[in-house]
Design brief:
730 residues, alpha+beta, Rossmann fold, Calcium-transporting ATPase, cytoplasmic domain N, 47% helix, elongated
Amino acid sequence: MAETPCVHCDQCCDLSVKPDEQAEEKSSFFKVHFWKFLVASGILLGVSIFIDASILTTGVAIINFIFSQGFAIGSVVLVCHDILLVSVNELKEKRLGASTLMIVAAIGSFLILESQEGAMAVFLYSFAERLEDLSADKARDAVSKLIKLTPDVALLKTETGTKQVHTHEVHVGDTIVIKPGMKVPLDGNIIAGESYFDTHAITGESVPRSKGVGDLVYASSINGDNLVELKVTKASGDTLLARITNSIKEAQKNKSKTEVFIQKFARYYTPAIFLASLLIIMVPWLIFHDEPLPWIYRGLILLVISCPCALTLSTPLSMVAALTKLSREGILVKGGRYIEALDQVKMFGFDKTATLTEGKLKVHDNVPYGGKISREQNLQFIASLEANSHHPIAKAIMSSDNHVKLLPVADFSEVRGKGIKGKIGNVEYHVGSIQYFKDQGIAIPEQDFKPYLFSGMTPVLLARGNEYLGMLTIRDNLRVSAPILLRGLKRRKIKSMIISGDTQQTVDSIGDCLYVDERYGNLLPEQKLGKIKDIQDRGTKVTMVGDGINDAPALTQSNVGIAMGKSGTDVALESADITILNDDLTKILVLLDIKNMANHIVRQNIWLSIIIKVLFAVLTVMGLMTLALAVGIGDMGVSLFVILNGFRVFNYKSKFQDISQDQLEVEATKVYCKNCNTSFTYPQHHGREMVKRDGDLVCWKSLVAEVASDACKEKLSLICPKCSNMREIE
C-alpha cells in the first residue's frame, strides 16, 4: 500500500504512516448511481407528459395512450427501487409507512389512467427521500469528523530515541513526543517543554492556550511552535475526545419527549389516514352513488398528502443539528430531551468554588498591625510557618511570592482546619483563623476584620506569643465570565441562586457582586441536594451548575445538571446531563441561545407540517388538489423546508466577547513610583484585581461587558500625583 504523509501535521517531519484498512459499507448500485437514474426518470416522465398532451397523435389515441403509459411506467421503474424495498419491509413488519402509501397511490393512479401524476409522485418522493438521506448523513458525519480529529499514531519516547507506533500500543504512563504543528494523539500531562495549544476542536476555545510542565493536554489539540513531551494519562479508547464521541452517539438515542411522542403518533396516524382514504373512496360511490373515479383520485391524493415524513423529521434532524453545533462550541449534551427540558427551567443554582470562582486561592492584602512589624516581615513569618502545612491556604500563601526568604521553624504543630504554631528563633508564633486566635486567648481587633469579611476574604492572622502582629487576606477570584452569565440570565428572566459549602458571608459578597437572587452558604453536599428539592417543591424547574465532583448529588437531583468539565472532566461527563468543556460560563448563554433556536425550529416544523397537511387535505376533499401538487408541495416541499430549517442552527454565532485570560490576569497588588519612592496597594474591584489599560487601572468587568452600559467605569490613574511620572505595577 502506498505510504501517506504524516497524519500529525502538514509539514515534513520524516514520518510515514500506513493508514488502517477500513471496511466500508458498500452502497447499492442504485444508490451509487441515483442521480443518473433520477435524470433518466425525469426525461422519461417529460416525454410521457409531452406525448399525452401532443396534438400530433390526436388521431391515434390508442397509440398515444400506450406510449404515454409506457414512458410513465419506465420513469417509475427507474426510481422506485428503494421505495419498493422499504415498502416490502414495512409490510413484513405488519405496519403501514410512507413508502407503502406512496406505492399504493402510484398503482392506484395508473389504474385510473392518471399515469403521469403517479409517475411524478414517485419521482418527487424519491428525490425528497434522497435529500433526507443526505441530511441525515450530514448529521452523522459530525460524529465521524470528531473521530477523525485524533491521529492514530504517536511518537513514543524510548531509551534509544523515538519510534512511531499506533496509539493502541501506547500505555498509560508512557512518554510521547509532540513536535510543532502536530496533533496530540492521546491525553497527557506535559513533563518537558512549553508551547501554545489550539484546542478549538474539543473545547470550542478560539484562542490558543499556553501549556507548561504539569498542564493537561487533550487529544486532538494542535501544538504550536515548540516541542513538548507528554506523559500519557488516558489510553486511546478513554481520551476525552473518545468519551465525547461516545456521549454524542448515545445522546442521539436519548430522544426528546416531543420526538418520542411524534414517533408513537406516526404508528397510529398512518393506518388512520389509510382508512380515511378508503372511506373517501368508498362512501360517495356506495352510499351516494357518485362517479367512483374522481373519488378514487381524491383518496389517492389524501394518501400522499398525509404521509408523515415532514412531521417525523420535524424534531430529530433539528435536535441532531443542535447537539452537533453545541459539541462544536465545547458544550456536550447527553440528549435532545435535555435541550427540551431547559425550556422549562426558571432557576439556575450555582456552586461557588471552581464554578463562579476560579477555585484558586490567592493572597490579596498584607496588613501589619500597629507598626510592630513591616509588610515584608508579616509575609515572611506567615509563609515560614505555612511552608510546613499542606492546607490549601498554605499553598496559596507560598505561591504568592516565590522570592520570600523562609526562616527555620522548630516545634511545629497544627490544629487541623484552624491554625498552626511553631518557634522562629526560640520565639513562639501562631498563624490561623479568627476562631483559632479566640481559642488561644489572643486579643485581636475584630472590628478591623469586618470590611475584609464583608468582601468575602479570609483573614490569616499572625501573633508572636499572645501579641497580635498582623494578617494576610485570602480570596478565591471570580471568573471573568461570571457577571456576563448572571446578567444574561436576568435578561432571559431566569432567576439565580448560589448553594455553597463556603461561609454565608463569603457567599453573600459574591452574590452582591453578581446580583444573585438567592444565596445559601455553609451547605454540605446532601444539604445542597435538599435545597434543590426545596426549590422544586415550589413548582420551579431547576438547573444546577457545579464542578461535577462534590456537586454530583445536586447535579443528579436537578432537572438539568450542568458540570464545568475542565475541573473534573471524568466525573462531570458521568454525573451531569450537560458538560461545559472549557469552564467558560458564557457557554451557558450559548447553550440557552442554541436551545431557544432549536426548540423554536422544532415548533415551527411541527406546526407548519400540521397546517399544510390539514389545508391540503381539505382542498383534496373539495377536489381542488392534484397528485403532483400534493407530492411537490404537501410532501416533498414541506419535508425540504423542515430539513433546511433544522440546519439553520449551524448559522448561530456567539455574541459574547472572547477575552483571553492573559489580558485579565494581574499578579501584582501594589503600585509604586520609583522617582518618589512611594507605593500603595490598589483595591480589589468586583472580586478581582484591576487591569492595566492605556495608563490607567480599570475594572476588569469593563473588558467583558456584554454592552457598553454594563461596563464598570471605575479607573485609577497610574500617573504619580507628586511627580507626574508613570507609576509601575508590582
